[in-house]
Amino acid sequence: MIAHSTPEQAIEMQSNTDNTSYANTAPFTTTAPATRTRNPIRHFRIGVVHVSLSSVYRPAITDFAELYKGCETDDPSPQSVFIEVRRSTRRYGLLSGYEVFADGEKCFEAPTRDSVLPHIEWAINAHTARYMPRFFEIHAAGMMTTRGNGIIFPAAPGSGKSTLTIGLLHSGWRYLTDEIAMIDPVTKLCHPYPKAVCIKAGSYPVLDALGIQRNRRRDYAKATKGRVSLIPIHRFGPDATGTPCHIKYIVFPEYAPEQNPRLTRIARAEAVLKLTEQTFNFARFRGKGTRLLTDLVAGAKCFSLKAGEIRETCKLLEAMTQERQP
Predict the structure, then answer these.
(1) Phi/psi at 291 (nearest 5 deg)?
(2) For residues 65 and 62, what is the distance between their CA atoms, to the nearest angstrom?
(3) Strand blocks (E) in the chain
(4) No. of H helices and E strands in the chain?
(5) CB–CB of 16/46 below 8 Å?
(6) Angle separating helix axes 287-298 and 268-276, nearest 10 degrees
């Protein structure tokens, strides 16, 4: 069961314990809800991730459908994750909260109405990190450069991946993901998982500086992250989502607001070790996992990044992709 005290721990636990706990977990093949529900069920395809959603709190479905405009489908996939929001038996003050389930397993408590949608998003991410056997999964943001090459930014939570993603989208790059890079182990292509970008309140000034509007009436509460805004990818245009692509750059970011942005080339062997720390399902692939990472790194240029002011950081990354480097 995925049941952690905070959403952040859910993702971190996938990364930290995958070598043991989840090695023999069967893939999900849900074709129908695990429990009966009187609420409508709506179906979505978010890149390679299929979601069926039902909620006793109806506005959460309305907001979810707005985030993923153009992703809704009429029928569920045989591999849909079924997300259900139920009323909680616990009370928070005078009001009852909500419980978020994935395929019948309780994932999170959402104590307030404005915390339901972010916890739906986290339940999908946590379940995807655990149960997508087709893909080799890396905790990373992913983009397509203006030249059509793939780039991933593997990093732990709090490294500024989502803010960097928004800046690069604004610069004309195309979006793959800001949470889980889905690598096909056969073709080595990175497939899009274009989930909405979650921006913390501390990064709202970055959105304002870039001229990216957020719906101020739809700020949400997200556990220890505080207030957050969910930015839909379709806001950046009909072609904002990228296509399956090979990874040509691997950049390990670290947010350093007081510094000028700086890229440092790192050895491929170091990159393999750092990537291993950010994989969700390394144990599922066992010995093949190391070979997959080695192959992935062999075809890429690898860097560490000190990310500073967003515009300057994006300019630095654009210049990197335009240079001819050995």
Answers:
(1) -65, -40
(2) 5
(3) 42-46, 49-55, 72-73, 81-92, 95-102, 105-110, 136-144, 150-154, 174-177, 180-183, 189-191, 197-200, 220-221, 227-231, 245-255, 262-265, 301-307
(4) 9, 17
(5) no
(6) 140
The candidate with the shortest Cα–Cα distance to 146, out of 170, 167, 166, 174, is 174
Q: Retrieve residue 188's tokens.
A: 């080595």
Whether 247 and 275 have beta carbons less than 8 Å apart is answered as: no
CB atoms within 10 A of CB 308: 18
* Domain ranges in the chain with CATH number 3.40.50: 136-322
Q: Rounded to a whole number, what is the distance in angstroms from the first to the last CA of the chain?
A: 46
Cβ atoms of 108 and 100 within 8 Å: the answer is yes
Kindly list the distances between the CA atom of residue 90 and the CA atoms of 56, 94, 98, 163, in Å, as whole numbers in the listed order. Answer: 15, 10, 8, 35
Query: Per-block average pLDDT, block size 10, for the chain (326 residues)?
Result: 37 38 32 56 96 95 95 91 91 78 93 93 90 90 95 92 95 96 96 95 90 81 80 94 97 89 96 94 86 94 94 95 68
Which tokens belong to 120?
A: 């739906």
Nearest to 107 by CA among 260, 280, 295, 116: 116
Q: What are the phi and psi torsion angles at 206 (to 5°)?
A: -65, -45
pLDDT computed for residue 5 by the predictor: 33
Which element (helix H / strand E) includes 62? helix 58-67
Q: Which CATH number is associated with domain 136-322? A: 3.40.50
Q: Characterize the bridge pairing of strands 245-255 and 150-154.
A: parallel
Determine contact, residues 161/178, Cβ cutoff 8 Å. yes
Q: At what angle do helices 161-170 and 310-322 cross, to 10 degrees?
A: 70
Q: Which residues contact 254 (CB under 8 A, 6 or more apart)?
A: 155, 159, 160, 304, 305, 306, 307
Distance set, CA 316 to CA 213, 262, 270 (Å) = 24, 8, 22
251 by DSSP, 3-state: which? strand
> Please, what is the Cα angle at 127 between 140 and 99, to 5 degrees?
120
